[in-house]
Amino acid sequence: MTYDAAAEQARKVAEEIGGKDVDHVDTPVRPAACPVCEVVLTGAMSVFEAASPEVGDATICIGCGTICLYTEEMTLRLPTKTEMFEIVRILGKKLNKPA
Ligand SMILES: [Zn+2]
Questions:
Q1: Model-level pTM?
Q2: What is the C-alpha separation between 18 and 16, in angstroms, rounded?
Q3: Which of 2, 18, 44, 72 suits a disulfide with 51, CB 3.0-4.6 Å?
Q4: How does residue 83 score in pLDDT terms, banded at 50, 70 and 90?
Q5: β-strand 40-46 against 67-70: which pairing, if any?
Q6: Residues with beta carbon < 5 A to ion ligand 1?
Q7: How far does CA 59 lie from the centroid of its chain?
Q8: How far does residue 65's CA lie from ligand 1's centre (Å)?
Q9: Cα 22 to middle of ligand 1, angstroms
């Protein structure tokens, strides 16, 4: 499955469940395959600002939702258990932050 096909599938699912599209910024990135579903990610998006992934940054695969990390070669790999705990800790802090 290509990135565009996965993005279209995600839009359809969001429409079916009554989700709304949000304003976001798409940034083309060097193509990298998800280590789980093998969708080739060719773009990154962020709700807040232009996404420009760097080594060690986390991303969520649009094809399967897996959290991946960018390697030195800007390919994607699964986080280690320790890295996953750190990601969850950081997300937990952001989600629990008072509005
Ligand atoms: Zn995937």
A1: 0.70
A2: 5
A3: 44
A4: very high
A5: unpaired
A6: 34, 36-37, 61, 63-64, 66
A7: 3
A8: 6
A9: 22
